[in-house]
Structures are given as structure tokens and as C-alpha cells.
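Recall that a protein's primary structure is simply its ordered list of amino acids. Everything else, from secondary elements to tertiary packing, is in principle encoded there. The following example makes that idea concrete.
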Amino acid sequence: MLARLFQTGADVFRLNFSHGTHDDHAARFAMIRELEERFNRPIGVLADVQGPKLRVGRFSGGRVFLQTGQPLLLDLNPTPGSASRVNLPHPEIIEAAQIGCSLLLDDGKLRLRVVRKRPDALETEVVVGGPLSDHKGVNVPDVVLPIPALTQKDRDDLAFALEHGANYIGLSFVQRPEDVAEAKALIRGRAWVMVKLEKPQALENLDAIMQLTDAVMVARGDLGVELPPEEVPLAQKRIVRTARQLGKPVVVATQMLESMISAPAPTRAEASDVATAVFDGTDAVMLSGETAAGQYPFEAVNMMDRIVARVEQDPGWRNMIETSRGEPEHATADAIAAAARQVCHTIGAKAVVAYTDSGATALRVARERPEAPIICLTPHLTTARRMAVVWGLHAVVAADAHSMGEAVTRAQRVAHVEGFAEHGDEIVVAAGVPFGHSGTTNSLRVATVR
């Protein structure tokens, strides 16, 4: 099934460390790397660490029904609760909460309002009632909680994922830029950090977080718990727009084709949702339950691939991408990337070939959204795998060139062998001279494939 998903369009596989054992994940790492060898194509692996899970305690009967308007005490007492009180084993929530702030239970199905605060408890009023059972989740959308984004479990999972060659680390529960800095200090460049934007506090610190992270995910499921539903589409557009301006990969995720967990075709609204993300300018769209536990994983990937391809063939998509493109930064590499796009458009080049060591040149070219595919040539398999999430990129591992002439010759050959250009077609080549030095993109050539 993994092979079928890859062949029909999947570029990155996400391993969710909220579920499964390390042995389970090790087996999947091995399967993905076997696929990579079989198809001779770099494949990205996203290790998604769980983050802190805030939950209420147990009830004496396992379940209660909370009536709207009734009081509910949340305290540190571990005794099984009732409809009038329950254990909240998180003193940091009690400390941070303020009178009037909201607490959401069970993915936002129930809502409480804090009416009085004690040193060891919160007195709340039930604003939206309903059934509540043991260990349901708690969300606190109104305050920044003094909780690190990485638990000890996350640190253990992170070490395991890095040891097995994960290319991106999905970072949950990010509230502040300091959360990103802490993760990056642990990772030490061995993988890209992909911040999952799922909390309102992260949106308040979006610019600072975006400066630090390598990539970002619009985690709409969790974001939709703490934000009003009408705010989520606007948050999505803002995040995608910010990522585009910075040239950092952005993924739109969660509930994209949710009905395909149990149905062979999506609703029209879901198809429109995927299309909207593509029109916004996202680099990638992600399936979750549809492929992790659904009955139609192949059909879901195939459908998503078809929607993406169809939207990008539409003139309206190109018009929106052109109008949303930001100005290049005042740097030689950005000027070269912008020129590559313009030359590609003017001469109708079949491909832009970007030589890159770290991936920075390829990212700059992808930010410009040229009209032709981008071939990313890199001597590092690690870089090629990281490029799997980036818009328009086809990464190929190749030895570094030693001169511009050699670079052009190799680019011509790769463009032809990989099926992007025929004899007589023109390609655009972006590279840095001298070769072998990261961050030196300063050269642009047009070459005819011979």
C-alpha cells in the first residue's frame, strides 16, 4: 500500500508518535527507505511528536452529563469525580487561568467559564454542556500556559526519530518562539523543524515563530478547537501568505477529505477545500485519518493528487499566484531566483535546474513559483529528502559540479533523463560559483538540451 500511495502522488509520509511503539515506527522507517531504493526517488519522512496532552481525571462511573449553567469544580484531588467536581491534574492550568477565561473539554464539545480561582482549584460554570467521560482533553485558548512544547516522551521520540533519519520533526503545542528555539537546539540541524500551528497564542507570535522554524503546518483540526470556526480559514490564509513571503514550506492539513475515511469519493465541499489551499499557494496538502485508518487510502491520495493537478492547470490559479508573489529580498540569490522565473516565462523553458547544497537555492526558486518544474540537483540525499515537501521540486542526488560548463552539461542530461526536456528544448540553470560553497547562488544560464 505504501508503494501504491507513493506512485499515485504521496511525497512525504507522516509517522504519528501519538500512536504506536518505537518498534512499529522502526518497521515503517525501513519500509519507506526500501521504497526509496526501489523507485530511486528521495522520500520525506515527517516524525510528528505528540506534545503535552492536558486531560481531566476519572469519574466514579466513568462518565457524567454536565448541564448548561451548572457549577463544576476542577481541583488537584485525584479522587474519581462526579457531575459537580473532577480532578484537573495540571496545576499550571490552575495557576495560569484567569476569571472569565474559557476551558474547552473533549475537543471543544463542552465549554466552561472560570468564575472563581483558588490556589488549588478553579470554580467554573458550564457554558455548553454535554456528556463527559474519563481522561478527555482540556484546551485553554485564552492564556499562554507555562508548559514546554516537548515532554520527556517527546524527547525520547525525537531522539529515536533522528536516529532513524527523519527529515522533518512536527512540533506540537507551540505557543512562543522559545518553543521552536528549544526544539532546534535539541535537533542541531539533523532535521527540519515543522511547527504545527494549532494554538491561538502561536498566531499572536506568528512572525517571530516563522523566522525561527524551517517549515510550518496549518493544523486546522486542533486550531479549530481553540479558534471560532469562522476564524480558521482566515488563519490559514494568513499563515500560507506569511510562509510564501519568507520562502518557507507550508503544509495545509486535517480533515481535507475526511469523508473518504469511509467513502470512496469526497464531498464537493472537501474537493473545494483542497482546491482552496492550492489557490492560497500552499506547498503541500496532507491526509491524516484518510490514509492512517481509512478504508480508501489509495483513492484518497489519488483524489487529492487529481485535485491539485487540475487546479494548477487553471489560468485562475496562475493569476492568483502571480498577484500574491512578494518582492525578492535585496540579495544576489533572490535576484537570481527571480530572474530564473522571468527567463523561464519569456523563453518557455521546460525546466529550471537549481544547484543547491543546503536546499536554500531551490527554496528561493520555488518561492518564485516559475511556470516550469524545478529540478533540484544536490550532492546530499538528506537535502533531497527535505525538498520532498517543497512546491514544484523534483530532487535528484548528483555529485557537485566543478565548473559552470560542467554544471550546464549535467543539468541538460538530468533534465532529459528525468523526462522534463527533449532534445532542442531550453532549460534555465541557477547555480553558485565557486561550486561546493553553500550560499553563493550568483549565476544564471540558459542551455539547450542536446
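The chain has three domains: 2-52+148-320, 63-139, 332-448. The domain at 2-52+148-320 is CATH 3.20.20.60 (TIM Barrel).
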